[in-house]
Write a structure and sequence with these properties.
mainly alpha
């Protein structure tokens, strides 16, 4: 039985997706900061959190547009994109640490690169879901905004954690990922996006 598209169900999925992704990122950074010898567990938490978020978002799309969307390879695409996004997070951290003598420069370059990588990933994932060319959302304003918000959550969380403010780091990552998902939700309400989902075989 398909779950109904209601404001409450939308809110619940938003919260579940946010907590899954936010906690996965937080655990990864915490292990990297406090127990680097166990970084494998941290990376597993990162990938798991990102995959959990994708499954939650796809449930929302199923609920909203169609109980059986046309993306037949979705079971493969979701974990692959989760791993790719995890690599983007790892690349961001590597960039930041590549400038030990100029931490500000490292954070600026890391933020710029991470924002671009997020925009690229979000465009590819969104395009796949509506069965459009891969870079269709690269120039989209809302996609750029929530891509930047996600990227911004990275240095803020890292700096708070490095300063010993672990609780505030957790609040920051969950809050900013929640903001990212809220803007993504607003993007899904755009008329052109709804038309793309319908054209891809969904219903409203």
């Amino acid at each position: 039985m398909q779950v109904k598209d209601t404001p409450l169900n939308n809110l619940l999925i938003l919260l579940i997706a946010t907590l899954g992704e936010g906690l996965g990122i937080f655990i990864w950074l915490l292990i990297d900061h406090q127990q680097p010898a166990n970084i494998g567990l941290g990376i597993a938490a990162l990938v798991g959190g990102l995959l959990f978020e994708r499954i939650s978002v796809y449930m929302l799309l199923q609920m909203r547009y169609n109980s059986k969307p046309p993306q037949t390879a979705i079971a493969l695409v979701l974990p692959i994109t989760a791993v790719l996004e995890a690599l983007c997070w790892i690349a961001w951290l590597a960039i930041v640490r590549a400038f030990p003598d100029s931490p500000v420069l490292g954070h600026v370059i890391g933020l710029a690169v991470f924002t671009f990588l997020n925009q690229f990933m979000h465009s590819i994932q969104g395009a796949y879901l509506v069965m459009k060319p891969a870079l269709i959302f690269m120039g989209d304003q809302k996609t750029a905004i929530f891509s930047f918000v996600e990227a911004l959550s990275a240095p803020i969380t890292l700096l708070l954690m490095a300063g010993g403010n672990t609780v505030f780091a957790l609040i920051a990552i969950v809050g900013l990922i929640g903001l990212e998902h809220t803007i993504q939700g607003a993007k899904l309400q755009d008329t052109d996006v709804k038309e793309m989902f319908v054209a891809a075989g969904g219903t409203v």
